[in-house]
Amino acid sequence: MTAALSIRNLTKTYGDKFEALKGISLEVQPGDFFALLGPNGAGKSTTIGIICSLVRKTGGVVEVFGINTDTHFSEAKMNIGVVPQEFNFSMFEKVLDIVTQQGGYYGLPVRVARERAEKYLRKLGLWEKRSTPARMLSGGMKRRLMIARALVHEPKLLILDEPTAGVDIELRRSMWDFLQEINAAGTTIILTTHYLEEAESLCRNVAIIDQGDIIKNTSIRELLKELNKEVFIFDCSGDLTATPSVAGYHTRLLDERSFEVEIEKGQSLNRLFEALTAQGLDIVSMRNKANRLEELFMAMVADNQKRGDKGVAQ
Ligand code: ADP
Question: What is the pTM of this model?
Fold first, then answer.
């Protein structure tokens, strides 16, 4: 089967010598929901920019559904919809015009472009705003406008660069639902994120990029298996006089009413709660300290260094 996206030995050097991409290779299969995950500055936007021909690569090959983006740029372009991080529509134009005009750039007859614009603006909850100039939309609405515009030519591959950055939680959920819906209907989706939670909720497969190298390329399920410990924060109803101590668990006091506990895979939560209850602690809330991605990176980078093969995708 032809891959939806195939990248081979992709390199990018900014200026004379800054290597933002050090020769990455990657395949994304049709129908996949794929995460390109990595910390800030890892090279995610550069990769996306190259796939969409917004950034000039230094070396390597990019194919979209088997179409080379260098030699058959126009054909490749028809298969790709992109939602960059920066809002890049005219702030003075009206919402409906922005999406309809985009259809024109992709060669759609005006009537079709208009129908599609309505379809996607409705799906994204923007139809009521169709006559509003873009500058008057909220940040979340502008993001959704970017998505509607990227879909007007109904590309087989949709690429989103940090789609939920700066989007509030409620809206993030509805955006996730929408993306899942179009993925289920057959659109291959690639998104970049630095939130493990986002990748975990949406994606099936993942590549982790760090300092211009792919350090992991696997399924989300396999990746999460590698997380062998999680840190939880507990809040108590009363003041803590000392760090709660429970044999076999690593605990740390955070402030007078909260402490954290490191829990390894397979460790019993019941036993932990029993011990805390026995100490007279009244736990009123428990939350995951959302640092799992950092833990994962640290573990992976350390692992790579140990084996001395940094840069080789697993
Ligand atoms: P990410 O999207 O993962 O945050 P980027 O692809 O934006 O990372 O950036 C990767 C690296 O390349 C960073 O160190 C960034 O500073 C650098 N970089 C990005 N764009 C440019 C540019 N136009 N000129 C010089 N350096 C750049």
Answer: 0.80
Q: Looking at residue 108, which CATH number applies to its domain? A: 3.40.50.300
Could you tell me the residue range of the domain that residue 288 belongs to? Answer: 229-292
pLDDT score for 81:
97
Q: Are residues 186 and 72 in the same domain?
A: yes
Q: Whose CA is nearest to atom 7 of ligand 1?
A: 45
In short, whether 43's Cβ falls inside 6 Å of ligand 1 is yes
Of 74, 89, 181, the closest CA to residue 100 belongs to 89
Give the model confidence (pLDDT) of 22-70 as tens digits: 999 999 999 999 999 988 899 999 999 999 999 999 999 999 999 999 9
Say if residue 121 is in the same domain as residue 218: yes
Residues 95 and 55 in one domain: yes
Whether 300 maps to a domain, the answer reads no
- Which numbered atom of ligand 1 lies nearest the CA of 12? 12
